[in-house]
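Exercise 7b. Backbone tokens:
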């Protein structure tokens, strides 16, 4: 009996240690928000499927008008595809060193009132959740534009087989940061209008 009890206590202690370690790796909400930055310098290391799954789940947790969730996501980890994307996106050259990329897509037909503006707003919120999740995991990412640039959207659609009615809102390269990119302090007191403009 004594041995069973000691075994049970040991199990509890070990489980506690595992959870404590996971917690230690997770930043709290405010430090994630304030330490998020566009990361354009990656080591070239791969990003695990488990991390990519966590990141996408965070995207899907975003709010959307009337909870319509008009978004969908293309996740790319193949080196060849990442390079093909980079080849036609002059403002996303960091893809060459990224471990993966997430393309946040949106469909006006699936948004409330089939409204294109709402489709873009909803998917943008998913995009910000994704950027924050990337930071929380100690990875780096940057929103590079698809929408509203026809040439960029056309290239992304061609490489990834995205249908014409689907808007590739952005391409978010994801990777292990080199540490070269730092957060900016954007606080400006004069931008706040308390009670009245
Ligand atoms: C709609 C949108 C489009 C952007 N497009 C690009 C882009 O094509 N390439 C790029 O390197 N960064 C792009 N960015 C990232 C911004 O340059 C970046 O967020 C801004 O300079 C602020 O820096 P921070 O993200 O480090 O706070 C884009 C950001 C947004 C929101």
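Sequence design result:
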């Amino acid at each position: 009996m004594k041995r069973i009890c000691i075994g049970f206590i040991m199990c509890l202690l070990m489980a506690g240690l595992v959870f404590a370690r996971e917690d230690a790796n997770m930043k709290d909400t405010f430090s994630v928000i304030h330490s998020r930055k566009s990361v354009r310098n990656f080591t070239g290391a791969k990003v695990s499927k488990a991390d990519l799954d966590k990141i996408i789940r965070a995207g899907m947790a975003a709010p959307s008008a009337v909870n319509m969730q008009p978004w969908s996501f293309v996740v790319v980890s193949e080196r060849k595809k990442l390079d093909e994307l980079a080849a036609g996106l002059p403002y996303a050259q960091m893809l060459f060193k990224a471990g993966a990329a997430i393309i946040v897509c949106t469909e006006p037909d699936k948004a409330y009132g089939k409204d294109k503006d709402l489709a873009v707003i909803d998917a943008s919120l998913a995009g910000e959740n994704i950027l924050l999740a990337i930071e929380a995991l100690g990875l780096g990412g940057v929103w590079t534009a698809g929408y509203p640039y026809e040439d960029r959207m056309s290239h992304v659609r061609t490489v990834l087989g995205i249908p014409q009615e689907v808007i590739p809102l952005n391409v978010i390269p994801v990777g292990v940061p080199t540490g070269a990119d730092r957060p900016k302090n954007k606080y400006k007191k004069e931008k706040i209008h308390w009670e009245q403009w």
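Instructor comment: The first helix runs from residue 2 to 25. The first strand starts at residue 71 and ends at 76.
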